[in-house]
Amino acid sequence: MRLKPFLLATLLGASGSALAADLLETFRAAQANDPVFAAARATMQAGQEKLPQGRALLLPSISLNANSTFNDQTVQSHGAFPPSGNFRYNSHGYGVNLTQPLFRQQNWLAYTEAELQVAQSEAQFRVAKQDLILRVAQAYFDVLIAQDSVQLSEAQKTAISEQLEQAKRNFEVGSATITDTHEAQARYDLTSAQQIAAQNDLEIKRRALQQLINAMPQDLRHLGKEFKLGAPQPADMEKWVDDAQQNSLQLAIAQAGAEIAEKEVARNRGGHYPTLDLVANYSNNQSNGGSFGVGSDNTNKSVGVQLNMPLFQGGATQSKWREAEANRERAKQELENTRRSVALQTRQAYLGVVSGIAQVKALQQALVSSESVLEASKLGQEVGVRTNLDVLNAQQQLYSTRRDLYQAEYSYLLSQLRLKAAVGLLDEAALNKINQALY
Length: 439
Prior knowledge:
The chain is an alpha+beta fold. It is about 65% helix and about 15% strand.
């Protein structure tokens, strides 16, 4: 049983009426306050704009131009016409130009790339959300482990203090040597130092959680009676690996990157292809004077198709093509590396859950044995077959086992979350399932 209520409230400064925050509430606070996650959200929003930008390359473009000019013109004629003189007048006009791409392979490929870039940015945001869940869970459990360490060191210090007082009494009545007192005093001093280190570690872990939620964490819920050990379902590691190959977000990002690189090759190859556009113009120009001394009002309308055939650009097109092919090979190798990494991470997470179950069960049994050893050592000391040092060692073993058990329980829960993340299924529902084990 954990040593919580009074000491924990004292350590965290929580009021007796305050409700302890659970893991899901902490995650939602981090969602609203973590700058890393906020940056990921902004990155996704920026990435989503790639689609309208790509679509714009296929739609018509319309531009408006206007001008107003003061003219000061001097004409010296060598004949009767045009007349000589100085002419000052204003001219102004406006025009509208429309261009509709009819055939531009590079634009079409850029649009299809934009679709992949949007999908990639959305997958990256989902990865950021999964990463936030893992970071919050890690920071949350780190605080709980640090709290447990402080409680255990306090309880151990109290037990050793009692043992020290008993050794002093026994020495005073002559039933024990001064060595027993020195041993108990040394163990008491060591535990005091460990308690200071545990309190310092707790403060650091609380500050780390504060960085995520932008508030100092108060009382947090611990593992309760709902905590149960459960093997992964299905209990087949390779099935989990297969699922990861189908649903991993990291793999989806790498796959999109490889497809974008493939389209980049085709797009740069299209630098050699002709382009065909529909063009239309409307313009109106007016002048209140001119070389002939009279004004004019001209309107022009035109519509047609325009063909542009690139012939030579200094070798830039071929260079960009070769660059795109090299990037395609890089993306292909990165995809393969991601596929292998996802398989490895999935196996590690699966084994973490399975071995975590075995470790927790072993430590639960070790805790029972350590409690029995301590009781036997105390009884043996009373009848003279065990020394004070034996009792001190049994106490230290008991508290070390408790600490190891708590850490193993939290590590098991984190492994469950990592396994869900490996197959792309880590979300609030999965986190809530872990949260139900807290009280």
